[in-house]
Amino acid sequence: MTSSLTMAETEATNFLKVLLQKDPEQVQTWLRMVWAEQQQVPEKFNWLGLAEVSTFRAQELANEESNKSHSESLAWAKIASSVYKFLAENNPSFSERYLDSLMTLRAYMILKFGALPGNPVLDIQQIVTYFFDNLHISYQEALIKATDWREALAANNPEETQKKFDSELEDIRKLRLIKSRLGIIKQLSKFLPNEELNIWISLWEKLP
Fold first, then answer.
1. What is the DSSP string of 171-185?
2. What distance in Å separates the CA atoms of residue 124 and residue 114, rounded to the nearest whole number?
3. How many CA atoms lie within 13 A of 206 on its CB side?
4. Is pLDDT of 78 > 70?
5. Beta-carbon neighbour count of residue 70 at 10 Å?
6. Average pLDDT of 17-34?
7. Residue 139 neighbours by CB under 8 Å, 6+ apart
8. CB distance 208 to 143 below 8 Å
């Protein structure tokens, strides 16, 4: 069993290396065939590895000056986007992690190339929709909890603060997740004429 597992992992690793030697259009073609169930994927294939390398290439090429590099940058970002979506859909326990990675990538690319409605990478509305769809808490509730938490910290009573932290761990996790996502969105404020979102951005510095 161990040796066959090792063989499968080796085969998958080698396949990924070969795939990443191809140009982004060829990788996109392979992905389209996979999504259409016309192409078999090696057992133990490292989907996250493909997404992360594609993200790295997209960001690296975005910093170069030629139009060809920028075109390739967007192509690799499109690959990363589709793979992160695939991972989120097929791994519910880690879907937030993968979608946050996707949102971070989109924000980076929009800062480099600007917002473009309908584009699979540069459509800023997809970031806004993702943020609001995954709030699970109202603005007023978040403001009350954030203020309450700041007051507890200001009291400078470590023992009571720890008790509060332990008893409200899930609430604090939600607030910190919102702050993390707002940190990404804050960078895009010049592209966001969204009054409701700007109200949330103003809450950022109050969150734990």
1. HHHHHHHHHHHHHHH
2. 9
3. 17
4. yes
5. 16
6. 96
7. 199, 200, 203
8. no
